[in-house]
TrEMBL record:
GO cellular component: plasma membrane
The keyword Ligase belongs to this UniProt entry's keyword annotation: no
Organism: Geodermatophilus sabuli
Spans traversing the lipid bilayer: 12-33
Domain of life: Bacteria
Domain DUF218: start-end pairs: 44-190
Protein name: Uncharacterized SAM-binding protein YcdF, DUF218 family
Assigned keywords, A-Z: Membrane, Transmembrane, Transmembrane helix
Pfam family membership, one: DUF218
Signal peptide (from-to): none
The UniProt record lists the keyword Transmembrane: yes
Amino acid sequence: MAVRAGSLVGRAVGAAVLAFFLLVVSTATAIWWTARQDSRPASDAIVVLGSAQYNGVPSSIFEARLEHALRLYEAGVAPVIVTVGGKAAGDQFTEAEAGRDYLAEAGVPGDALLPVQEGVDTLESMRAVSAAFDERGWGSAVLVTDPWHAMRAERMAEDAGIAADSSPTRQGPAVQTRTTQFRYILRETAAYLLYRATGESVAGAPGIG
């Protein structure tokens, strides 16, 4: 009887391990698939997810996102670009300010730029953007971020009440090599599963939290 009970426990553990493995694989595949999409319907705003900035100068990852958002704006996807992100301790500029200033220098009119200077991770940023949307009666957005971050960003935006599509950038360090891409997919898989399980975000590298 004890042997049979042990066998049942072993099967249950094996089934749980297999189920978890399949969940991880299916999530990673969905992240990869979403990363390959480019949805750009007419929307209320283009939302650029923040990344690191250095004394007001966007990092290479952030710059790639801003350049992509600029192309979407010029294509008429939305009349406004929202830059989002707060600042770390000791910083003089927020990510939102750095992004706004970069786009202003690129020729985007001031009334077409909205900096939302809150959020130290994606979840906080999306909630801040949702509040800004509510104030203006907006409901739809095209999100600009790195390809591997797109699925989680969409989910968080939708959970915050925004009808979100994503148009990931194809430039920048996050897409340079297959090794880099694989590392980002693994990291995003863990972050997405954590969010779905707990409703919380995770602090990490730019664009990962």
